[in-house]
Amino acid sequence: MTARREASAPPDLPGYEYVRVLGLGGFADVFLYRQHLPRRDVAVKVLLAGSLDHDVRERFQTEANLMAQLSHHPSIVTIYHAAIAADGRPFLVMEYCSRVGLAERYRAERIPVPEVLRIGVRLASAVETAHRAGILHRDIKPANVLTTDFGWPALTDFGIAATTGPAVQTMGMSIPWSPPELLAEHPTGDERSDVYALAATIYSLLAGRTPFELPGGNNSAQQLVARIERSPLPAVGRDDVPPQLQAVLERAMAKHPSRRFSSAMAVARALQEVEAALRLPVTPLDLPDEAPAPSGLMPSDDEDATRLRGISLPGPLQVRGPDDEDATRARSVVVGRPTLVAPTAPAPAPVPAGVPDGPDGRRGGRVAAVVAGAVVVVAVAAVLVASLGGADPVPPRGVSDTFAPPQTGPAAAPVPAPHSLDGTRAADGAVTFTWQNPDPQDGDRYLWGVLTATGEPTLVLVDDERVTVPAEQATGEVCIEVSIVRADRSRSARPAQGCTS
Q1: Of 186 and 279, which is predicted with more confidence?
Q2: Overall pTM surpassing 0.85 (yes/no)
Protein backbone atom coordinates (compact mmCIF):
# COMPACT_ATOMS: atom_id res chain seq x y z
CA MET A 1 0.00 0.00 0.00
CA THR A 2 1.38 3.39 -0.97
CA ALA A 3 2.10 5.68 1.97
CA ARG A 4 0.26 8.94 2.12
CA ARG A 5 2.43 12.02 1.60
CA GLU A 6 2.70 14.73 4.18
CA ALA A 7 0.59 17.85 3.75
CA SER A 8 2.28 20.90 2.31
CA ALA A 9 2.99 23.78 4.63
CA PRO A 10 -0.12 25.94 5.13
CA PRO A 11 0.48 29.45 3.76
CA ASP A 12 0.47 32.52 5.96
CA LEU A 13 -2.75 34.31 4.98
CA PRO A 14 -3.38 37.78 6.42
CA GLY A 15 -6.77 37.86 8.12
CA TYR A 16 -6.89 34.08 8.56
CA GLU A 17 -5.73 31.74 11.33
CA TYR A 18 -4.60 28.23 10.38
CA VAL A 19 -6.41 25.41 12.24
CA ARG A 20 -5.68 22.01 10.67
CA VAL A 21 -5.44 19.89 7.51
CA LEU A 22 -8.73 18.83 5.90
CA GLY A 23 -7.54 16.81 2.91
CA LEU A 24 -4.73 16.07 0.47
CA GLY A 25 -5.04 15.99 -3.32
CA GLY A 26 -2.95 15.40 -6.40
CA PHE A 27 -2.61 19.11 -7.19
CA ALA A 28 -3.72 20.87 -4.02
CA ASP A 29 -4.16 20.51 -0.28
CA VAL A 30 -7.17 21.73 1.68
CA PHE A 31 -6.81 23.35 5.11
CA LEU A 32 -9.22 24.60 7.73
CA TYR A 33 -8.69 28.27 8.57
CA ARG A 34 -10.56 30.66 10.83
CA GLN A 35 -11.35 33.93 9.10
CA HIS A 36 -11.08 36.95 11.39
CA LEU A 37 -13.60 39.28 9.73
CA PRO A 38 -16.26 38.19 9.26
CA ARG A 39 -15.42 35.53 11.82
CA ARG A 40 -16.11 32.07 10.46
CA ASP A 41 -14.43 28.77 9.61
CA VAL A 42 -13.46 28.39 5.96
CA ALA A 43 -11.83 25.73 3.80
CA VAL A 44 -8.75 26.97 1.93
CA LYS A 45 -7.59 25.01 -1.09
CA VAL A 46 -3.92 25.69 -1.82
CA LEU A 47 -2.09 24.65 -4.97
CA LEU A 48 1.01 22.52 -4.32
CA ALA A 49 4.36 24.23 -4.87
CA GLY A 50 5.37 21.54 -7.37
CA SER A 51 2.22 22.04 -9.46
CA LEU A 52 2.70 25.65 -10.51
CA ASP A 53 3.06 25.13 -14.27
CA HIS A 54 0.88 27.17 -16.61
CA ASP A 55 -1.72 24.45 -17.28
CA VAL A 56 -2.32 23.72 -13.60
CA ARG A 57 -2.58 27.42 -12.75
CA GLU A 58 -5.08 27.83 -15.57
CA ARG A 59 -7.10 24.88 -14.30
CA PHE A 60 -7.06 26.36 -10.79
CA GLN A 61 -8.26 29.71 -12.11
CA THR A 62 -11.00 27.98 -14.10
CA GLU A 63 -12.20 26.23 -10.96
CA ALA A 64 -12.40 29.54 -9.09
CA ASN A 65 -14.36 31.21 -11.86
CA LEU A 66 -16.78 28.33 -12.37
CA MET A 67 -17.49 27.82 -8.69
CA ALA A 68 -18.05 31.55 -8.28
CA GLN A 69 -20.51 31.45 -11.17
CA LEU A 70 -22.44 28.54 -9.65
CA SER A 71 -21.97 28.90 -5.90
CA HIS A 72 -25.28 30.68 -5.42
CA HIS A 73 -26.84 27.22 -5.71
CA PRO A 74 -27.68 25.61 -2.34
CA SER A 75 -26.05 22.31 -3.32
CA ILE A 76 -22.82 23.71 -4.77
CA VAL A 77 -19.98 24.71 -2.46
CA THR A 78 -19.69 28.50 -2.14
CA ILE A 79 -16.39 30.20 -3.01
CA TYR A 80 -15.61 33.39 -1.11
CA HIS A 81 -12.22 34.52 -2.38
CA ALA A 82 -9.31 33.59 -4.64
CA ALA A 83 -5.79 35.04 -4.54
CA ILE A 84 -2.06 34.24 -4.51
CA ALA A 85 -0.29 33.73 -1.20
CA ALA A 86 2.98 35.45 -0.31
CA ASP A 87 4.91 32.27 -1.23
CA GLY A 88 3.44 32.35 -4.75
CA ARG A 89 0.88 29.57 -4.36
CA PRO A 90 -2.68 30.29 -5.59
CA PHE A 91 -5.46 29.53 -3.12
CA LEU A 92 -9.26 29.44 -2.93
CA VAL A 93 -11.26 30.33 0.17
CA MET A 94 -14.44 28.25 0.21
CA GLU A 95 -17.36 27.33 2.39
CA TYR A 96 -16.39 24.88 5.11
CA CYS A 97 -18.67 21.84 5.08
CA SER A 98 -18.28 20.39 8.56
CA ARG A 99 -20.21 17.15 8.32
CA VAL A 100 -18.96 13.81 7.01
CA GLY A 101 -18.96 13.73 3.20
CA LEU A 102 -20.52 11.05 1.02
CA ALA A 103 -17.18 9.36 0.27
CA GLU A 104 -16.78 8.50 3.95
CA ARG A 105 -20.42 7.56 4.44
CA TYR A 106 -21.33 5.28 1.55
CA ARG A 107 -18.96 2.45 2.50
CA ALA A 108 -19.37 2.84 6.26
CA GLU A 109 -23.13 2.92 6.71
CA ARG A 110 -26.41 1.85 5.17
CA ILE A 111 -27.86 5.19 4.08
CA PRO A 112 -31.70 5.13 4.21
CA VAL A 113 -33.53 5.22 0.89
CA PRO A 114 -35.47 8.42 1.74
CA GLU A 115 -32.20 10.24 2.46
CA VAL A 116 -30.60 8.96 -0.75
CA LEU A 117 -33.60 10.22 -2.71
CA ARG A 118 -33.34 13.68 -1.11
CA ILE A 119 -29.62 13.80 -1.82
CA GLY A 120 -30.23 12.66 -5.39
CA VAL A 121 -32.83 15.33 -6.14
CA ARG A 122 -30.67 18.09 -4.65
CA LEU A 123 -27.55 16.97 -6.50
CA ALA A 124 -29.52 16.67 -9.74
CA SER A 125 -30.68 20.25 -9.23
CA ALA A 126 -27.06 21.35 -8.82
CA VAL A 127 -25.95 19.49 -11.95
CA GLU A 128 -28.88 20.89 -13.94
CA THR A 129 -27.93 24.40 -12.83
CA ALA A 130 -24.37 23.85 -14.06
CA HIS A 131 -25.62 22.46 -17.37
CA ARG A 132 -27.89 25.44 -17.93
CA ALA A 133 -24.83 27.63 -17.50
CA GLY A 134 -23.05 25.60 -20.19
CA ILE A 135 -20.82 23.73 -17.71
CA LEU A 136 -20.19 19.99 -17.42
CA HIS A 137 -18.79 18.84 -14.09
CA ARG A 138 -17.15 15.69 -15.52
CA ASP A 139 -16.12 14.16 -12.20
CA ILE A 140 -19.29 13.59 -10.19
CA LYS A 141 -18.61 10.98 -7.50
CA PRO A 142 -19.12 10.61 -3.73
CA ALA A 143 -15.71 12.14 -2.95
CA ASN A 144 -16.79 15.36 -4.65
CA VAL A 145 -19.98 15.72 -2.61
CA LEU A 146 -19.48 17.35 0.78
CA THR A 147 -22.13 17.81 3.48
CA THR A 148 -22.98 21.21 4.93
CA ASP A 149 -23.63 22.04 8.57
CA PHE A 150 -27.36 21.63 7.85
CA GLY A 151 -27.07 18.24 6.15
CA TRP A 152 -27.32 19.38 2.54
CA PRO A 153 -25.13 17.78 -0.14
CA ALA A 154 -22.73 20.28 -1.70
CA LEU A 155 -21.05 19.52 -5.03
CA THR A 156 -17.43 20.64 -5.28
CA ASP A 157 -14.22 20.20 -7.31
CA PHE A 158 -14.95 21.87 -10.63
CA GLY A 159 -11.24 21.83 -11.46
CA ILE A 160 -11.72 19.64 -14.53
CA ALA A 161 -15.13 21.02 -15.53
CA ALA A 162 -15.81 21.79 -19.18
CA THR A 163 -16.91 25.22 -20.27
CA THR A 164 -18.23 26.44 -23.58
CA GLY A 165 -15.73 27.89 -26.00
CA PRO A 166 -12.51 26.80 -27.67
CA ALA A 167 -10.33 26.48 -24.56
CA VAL A 168 -8.19 23.35 -24.32
CA GLN A 169 -8.71 21.54 -21.03
CA THR A 170 -7.45 18.47 -19.24
CA MET A 171 -10.06 15.91 -18.37
CA GLY A 172 -9.89 13.38 -15.54
CA MET A 173 -12.85 11.20 -14.64
CA SER A 174 -12.70 8.49 -12.02
CA ILE A 175 -13.30 5.11 -13.66
CA PRO A 176 -15.92 3.61 -11.28
CA TRP A 177 -18.38 6.43 -12.01
CA SER A 178 -17.46 7.07 -15.67
CA PRO A 179 -19.85 6.35 -18.58
CA PRO A 180 -18.76 4.09 -21.46
CA GLU A 181 -18.42 6.92 -23.98
CA LEU A 182 -15.70 8.56 -21.89
CA LEU A 183 -13.74 5.30 -21.66
CA ALA A 184 -13.72 4.69 -25.42
CA GLU A 185 -10.75 5.02 -27.74
CA HIS A 186 -12.09 8.36 -28.99
CA PRO A 187 -14.14 9.69 -26.07
CA THR A 188 -17.16 11.92 -26.60
CA GLY A 189 -19.61 13.22 -24.06
CA ASP A 190 -22.22 15.79 -23.17
CA GLU A 191 -24.54 16.50 -20.23
CA ARG A 192 -25.79 12.90 -20.40
CA SER A 193 -22.31 11.82 -19.30
CA ASP A 194 -22.89 13.81 -16.11
CA VAL A 195 -26.33 12.17 -15.86
CA TYR A 196 -24.60 8.77 -15.84
CA ALA A 197 -22.06 9.82 -13.18
CA LEU A 198 -24.83 11.35 -11.06
CA ALA A 199 -26.78 8.08 -11.15
CA ALA A 200 -23.62 6.08 -10.46
CA THR A 201 -23.06 8.21 -7.35
CA ILE A 202 -26.64 7.58 -6.19
CA TYR A 203 -26.12 3.86 -6.83
CA SER A 204 -23.00 3.90 -4.62
CA LEU A 205 -24.93 5.51 -1.76
CA LEU A 206 -27.51 2.72 -1.93
CA ALA A 207 -25.23 -0.24 -2.58
CA GLY A 208 -22.25 0.71 -0.40
CA ARG A 209 -19.96 0.02 -3.36
CA THR A 210 -19.27 1.41 -6.81
CA PRO A 211 -21.70 0.23 -9.53
CA PHE A 212 -19.56 -2.43 -11.23
CA GLU A 213 -17.40 -3.40 -8.28
CA LEU A 214 -17.35 -7.11 -7.39
CA PRO A 215 -16.95 -7.56 -3.63
CA GLY A 216 -13.91 -9.76 -3.16
CA GLY A 217 -13.34 -9.95 -6.94
CA ASN A 218 -10.94 -8.45 -9.46
CA ASN A 219 -11.65 -4.73 -9.47
CA SER A 220 -8.66 -3.51 -11.43
CA ALA A 221 -9.09 -0.54 -13.73
CA GLN A 222 -9.09 -2.85 -16.78
CA GLN A 223 -11.80 -5.09 -15.34
CA LEU A 224 -13.95 -2.16 -14.28
CA VAL A 225 -13.75 -0.61 -17.75
CA ALA A 226 -14.76 -3.91 -19.34
CA ARG A 227 -17.80 -4.25 -17.07
CA ILE A 228 -18.84 -0.63 -17.52
CA GLU A 229 -18.73 -1.03 -21.28
CA ARG A 230 -20.42 -4.44 -21.56
CA SER A 231 -22.08 -5.73 -18.38
CA PRO A 232 -25.66 -4.90 -17.33
CA LEU A 233 -26.02 -2.79 -14.21
CA PRO A 234 -26.15 -5.13 -11.18
CA ALA A 235 -29.05 -4.87 -8.78
CA VAL A 236 -28.40 -2.67 -5.78
CA GLY A 237 -29.03 -5.67 -3.54
CA ARG A 238 -31.20 -4.06 -0.87
CA ASP A 239 -34.71 -5.21 0.01
CA ASP A 240 -35.81 -1.65 0.76
CA VAL A 241 -34.85 -0.30 -2.69
CA PRO A 242 -38.04 -0.38 -4.80
CA PRO A 243 -37.91 -1.71 -8.39
CA GLN A 244 -38.92 1.75 -9.62
CA LEU A 245 -35.71 3.24 -8.19
CA GLN A 246 -33.59 0.45 -9.70
CA ALA A 247 -35.27 1.19 -13.06
CA VAL A 248 -34.41 4.89 -12.75
CA LEU A 249 -30.75 4.04 -12.17
CA GLU A 250 -30.70 1.57 -15.07
CA ARG A 251 -32.09 4.15 -17.46
CA ALA A 252 -29.77 6.92 -16.25
CA MET A 253 -26.79 4.55 -16.62
CA ALA A 254 -27.72 3.05 -19.99
CA LYS A 255 -24.70 2.16 -22.11
CA HIS A 256 -25.74 4.43 -24.96
CA PRO A 257 -26.35 8.09 -24.10
CA SER A 258 -29.50 8.27 -26.24
CA ARG A 259 -31.23 5.79 -23.94
CA ARG A 260 -30.55 7.79 -20.77
CA PHE A 261 -32.54 10.63 -19.28
CA SER A 262 -31.78 13.63 -21.44
CA SER A 263 -31.11 16.00 -18.53
CA ALA A 264 -30.28 16.08 -14.84
CA MET A 265 -33.67 17.67 -14.25
CA ALA A 266 -35.30 14.56 -15.73
CA VAL A 267 -33.37 12.45 -13.21
CA ALA A 268 -34.61 14.70 -10.41
CA ARG A 269 -38.20 14.36 -11.64
CA ALA A 270 -37.86 10.57 -11.77
CA LEU A 271 -36.51 10.50 -8.20
CA GLN A 272 -39.44 12.69 -7.13
CA GLU A 273 -41.72 10.08 -8.70
CA VAL A 274 -40.13 7.42 -6.49
CA GLU A 275 -40.59 9.62 -3.43
CA ALA A 276 -44.27 10.09 -4.28
CA ALA A 277 -44.75 6.36 -4.85
CA LEU A 278 -43.21 5.65 -1.42
CA ARG A 279 -45.50 8.29 0.14
CA LEU A 280 -42.49 10.38 1.14
CA PRO A 281 -42.38 14.19 1.07
CA VAL A 282 -41.33 15.21 -2.45
CA THR A 283 -38.01 17.04 -2.36
CA PRO A 284 -38.32 20.37 -4.22
CA LEU A 285 -36.07 21.17 -7.16
CA ASP A 286 -33.56 23.92 -6.37
CA LEU A 287 -34.00 25.72 -9.69
CA PRO A 288 -35.09 29.37 -9.69
CA ASP A 289 -37.48 29.00 -12.63
CA GLU A 290 -39.03 25.61 -11.87
CA ALA A 291 -42.44 24.90 -10.35
CA PRO A 292 -42.83 21.71 -8.29
CA ALA A 293 -43.44 18.55 -10.33
CA PRO A 294 -46.92 16.99 -10.15
CA SER A 295 -46.53 14.01 -7.85
CA GLY A 296 -47.08 10.58 -9.37
CA LEU A 297 -46.42 11.70 -12.94
CA MET A 298 -43.39 10.95 -15.06
CA PRO A 299 -42.28 13.74 -17.44
CA SER A 300 -41.87 12.92 -21.09
CA ASP A 301 -38.55 13.44 -22.85
CA ASP A 302 -40.03 16.57 -24.43
CA GLU A 303 -40.74 18.02 -20.99
CA ASP A 304 -37.51 17.08 -19.30
CA ALA A 305 -35.05 17.83 -22.10
CA THR A 306 -32.68 20.71 -21.54
CA ARG A 307 -30.24 21.41 -24.35
CA LEU A 308 -27.05 23.37 -23.95
CA ARG A 309 -24.60 25.31 -26.03
CA GLY A 310 -21.99 23.14 -27.72
CA ILE A 311 -18.89 22.31 -25.68
CA SER A 312 -15.53 21.64 -27.35
CA LEU A 313 -12.73 19.95 -25.44
CA PRO A 314 -9.87 19.01 -27.76
CA GLY A 315 -7.57 18.15 -24.85
CA PRO A 316 -6.07 15.02 -23.27
CA LEU A 317 -8.27 12.75 -21.16
CA GLN A 318 -6.94 11.55 -17.83
CA VAL A 319 -8.74 8.49 -16.50
CA ARG A 320 -8.27 7.81 -12.81
CA GLY A 321 -8.10 4.31 -11.43
CA PRO A 322 -10.44 2.91 -8.77
CA ASP A 323 -7.87 3.07 -5.97
CA ASP A 324 -5.17 5.44 -7.17
CA GLU A 325 -6.85 8.66 -8.30
CA ASP A 326 -3.52 9.95 -9.61
CA ALA A 327 -3.23 7.05 -12.10
CA THR A 328 -4.14 8.39 -15.53
CA ARG A 329 -4.10 7.59 -19.21
CA ALA A 330 -4.18 10.22 -21.92
CA ARG A 331 -6.84 10.45 -24.61
CA SER A 332 -8.38 13.21 -26.64
CA VAL A 333 -12.01 14.20 -26.15
CA VAL A 334 -14.53 16.32 -27.99
CA VAL A 335 -17.73 17.24 -26.20
CA GLY A 336 -20.63 18.91 -27.91
CA ARG A 337 -24.36 19.28 -28.18
CA PRO A 338 -26.51 21.77 -30.08
CA THR A 339 -28.29 24.69 -28.49
CA LEU A 340 -32.00 24.63 -27.85
CA VAL A 341 -33.81 27.01 -25.55
CA ALA A 342 -35.55 25.33 -22.62
CA PRO A 343 -39.15 26.44 -22.14
CA THR A 344 -39.71 28.88 -19.33
CA ALA A 345 -41.50 27.24 -16.42
CA PRO A 346 -44.19 29.09 -14.48
CA ALA A 347 -42.92 31.06 -11.52
CA PRO A 348 -43.51 29.52 -8.09
CA ALA A 349 -46.30 30.89 -5.96
CA PRO A 350 -45.27 33.88 -3.79
CA VAL A 351 -44.51 33.34 -0.12
CA PRO A 352 -47.15 34.93 2.12
CA ALA A 353 -45.96 37.90 4.15
CA GLY A 354 -44.62 37.05 7.57
CA VAL A 355 -43.59 33.48 6.74
CA PRO A 356 -39.99 32.96 7.99
CA ASP A 357 -37.16 31.45 5.98
CA GLY A 358 -36.00 27.91 6.63
CA PRO A 359 -33.67 27.05 9.51
CA ASP A 360 -30.67 26.54 7.24
CA GLY A 361 -30.19 30.15 6.09
CA ARG A 362 -28.87 30.04 2.54
CA ARG A 363 -30.27 26.57 2.10
CA GLY A 364 -33.70 27.42 3.51
CA GLY A 365 -36.79 29.06 2.15
CA ARG A 366 -38.69 26.13 0.69
CA VAL A 367 -42.10 27.62 1.59
CA ALA A 368 -42.67 28.87 -1.95
CA ALA A 369 -42.46 25.30 -3.23
CA VAL A 370 -44.99 24.13 -0.63
CA VAL A 371 -47.44 26.91 -1.50
CA ALA A 372 -47.02 26.24 -5.21
CA GLY A 373 -47.73 22.57 -4.58
CA ALA A 374 -51.31 23.46 -3.72
CA VAL A 375 -52.07 23.99 -7.39
CA VAL A 376 -50.52 20.69 -8.50
CA VAL A 377 -53.79 18.74 -8.52
CA VAL A 378 -55.31 21.15 -11.02
CA ALA A 379 -52.50 20.40 -13.47
CA VAL A 380 -52.56 16.61 -13.09
CA ALA A 381 -55.20 15.90 -15.71
CA ALA A 382 -53.53 18.02 -18.39
CA VAL A 383 -50.09 16.59 -17.72
CA LEU A 384 -51.45 13.04 -17.67
CA VAL A 385 -52.95 13.52 -21.12
CA ALA A 386 -49.63 14.80 -22.42
CA SER A 387 -47.71 11.98 -20.74
CA LEU A 388 -49.95 9.25 -22.11
CA GLY A 389 -49.45 10.63 -25.58
CA GLY A 390 -45.87 9.42 -25.50
CA ALA A 391 -42.76 11.08 -26.85
CA ASP A 392 -40.48 10.21 -29.69
CA PRO A 393 -36.91 9.25 -28.77
CA VAL A 394 -34.18 11.85 -28.48
CA PRO A 395 -33.03 13.03 -31.92
CA PRO A 396 -29.52 12.25 -33.15
CA ARG A 397 -26.84 14.87 -32.88
CA GLY A 398 -24.50 15.94 -35.64
CA VAL A 399 -26.65 14.64 -38.52
CA SER A 400 -26.21 16.49 -41.79
CA ASP A 401 -29.03 18.79 -42.88
CA THR A 402 -29.07 17.17 -46.32
CA PHE A 403 -32.64 16.07 -45.68
CA ALA A 404 -33.78 19.20 -43.86
CA PRO A 405 -37.25 20.44 -44.84
CA PRO A 406 -37.43 23.37 -47.24
CA GLN A 407 -37.36 26.79 -45.54
CA THR A 408 -39.72 28.56 -47.94
CA GLY A 409 -43.47 28.35 -48.60
CA PRO A 410 -46.23 27.40 -46.15
CA ALA A 411 -45.35 25.12 -43.25
CA ALA A 412 -45.79 21.46 -44.15
CA ALA A 413 -47.25 18.85 -41.83
CA PRO A 414 -44.53 17.34 -39.61
CA VAL A 415 -43.10 14.05 -40.78
CA PRO A 416 -43.85 11.34 -38.21
CA ALA A 417 -41.33 8.83 -36.95
CA PRO A 418 -41.61 5.14 -37.83
CA HIS A 419 -43.23 2.94 -35.22
CA SER A 420 -43.05 -0.76 -34.23
CA LEU A 421 -39.27 -0.74 -34.65
CA ASP A 422 -38.14 -4.23 -33.70
CA GLY A 423 -34.99 -6.33 -34.15
CA THR A 424 -34.49 -10.06 -34.55
CA ARG A 425 -31.13 -11.83 -34.32
CA ALA A 426 -30.47 -14.63 -36.80
CA ALA A 427 -28.51 -17.80 -36.08
CA ASP A 428 -25.40 -16.33 -37.73
CA GLY A 429 -25.47 -13.32 -35.40
CA ALA A 430 -26.83 -10.77 -37.85
CA VAL A 431 -29.71 -8.57 -36.64
CA THR A 432 -32.64 -7.61 -38.88
CA PHE A 433 -34.73 -4.59 -37.90
CA THR A 434 -38.20 -3.89 -39.27
CA TRP A 435 -40.58 -0.96 -38.73
CA GLN A 436 -43.82 0.54 -39.99
CA ASN A 437 -44.59 3.87 -41.63
CA PRO A 438 -47.65 5.40 -39.89
CA ASP A 439 -48.42 7.70 -42.86
CA PRO A 440 -46.97 6.23 -46.08
CA GLN A 441 -46.72 8.58 -49.06
CA ASP A 442 -45.36 8.27 -52.58
CA GLY A 443 -41.59 8.60 -52.66
CA ASP A 444 -41.02 7.78 -48.97
CA ARG A 445 -37.58 6.42 -48.11
CA TYR A 446 -35.84 5.71 -44.81
CA LEU A 447 -32.67 7.13 -43.27
CA TRP A 448 -31.09 4.76 -40.77
CA GLY A 449 -27.86 4.09 -38.92
CA VAL A 450 -26.36 2.01 -36.11
CA LEU A 451 -26.00 3.88 -32.80
CA THR A 452 -22.69 3.53 -30.98
CA ALA A 453 -21.54 4.80 -27.61
CA THR A 454 -18.44 6.41 -29.08
CA GLY A 455 -19.74 8.46 -31.99
CA GLU A 456 -22.59 9.50 -34.24
CA PRO A 457 -24.25 6.96 -36.56
CA THR A 458 -23.34 6.75 -40.21
CA LEU A 459 -26.71 7.27 -41.89
CA VAL A 460 -27.80 5.37 -45.02
CA LEU A 461 -30.90 5.85 -47.19
CA VAL A 462 -32.96 2.74 -48.04
CA ASP A 463 -36.27 2.10 -49.81
CA ASP A 464 -37.63 -0.76 -47.70
CA GLU A 465 -38.92 -0.95 -44.12
CA ARG A 466 -36.23 -3.49 -43.28
CA VAL A 467 -32.46 -3.40 -42.73
CA THR A 468 -29.90 -5.95 -41.57
CA VAL A 469 -26.87 -5.27 -39.39
CA PRO A 470 -24.16 -7.81 -40.34
CA ALA A 471 -22.95 -10.22 -37.65
CA GLU A 472 -19.49 -8.61 -37.45
CA GLN A 473 -21.15 -5.29 -36.52
CA ALA A 474 -23.81 -6.82 -34.28
CA THR A 475 -21.86 -7.94 -31.22
CA GLY A 476 -23.69 -7.38 -27.95
CA GLU A 477 -26.65 -5.02 -27.83
CA VAL A 478 -27.41 -3.40 -31.20
CA CYS A 479 -29.28 -0.10 -31.42
CA ILE A 480 -30.39 1.77 -34.55
CA GLU A 481 -32.31 4.92 -35.41
CA VAL A 482 -34.67 5.34 -38.38
CA SER A 483 -36.30 8.44 -39.91
CA ILE A 484 -38.86 8.75 -42.68
CA VAL A 485 -37.65 10.88 -45.62
CA ARG A 486 -40.34 12.38 -47.87
CA ALA A 487 -40.00 13.00 -51.60
CA ASP A 488 -39.48 16.72 -50.85
CA ARG A 489 -36.48 15.73 -48.67
CA SER A 490 -38.19 16.59 -45.38
CA ARG A 491 -37.73 13.96 -42.69
CA SER A 492 -38.90 12.90 -39.24
CA ALA A 493 -38.14 15.56 -36.66
CA ARG A 494 -37.31 12.81 -34.20
CA PRO A 495 -36.11 9.42 -35.46
CA ALA A 496 -37.37 6.18 -34.00
CA GLN A 497 -34.77 4.29 -31.97
CA GLY A 498 -34.72 0.63 -31.03
CA CYS A 499 -32.34 -1.96 -29.61
CA THR A 500 -32.04 -5.71 -29.45
CA SER A 501 -29.66 -7.93 -27.51
Answers
A1: 279
A2: no
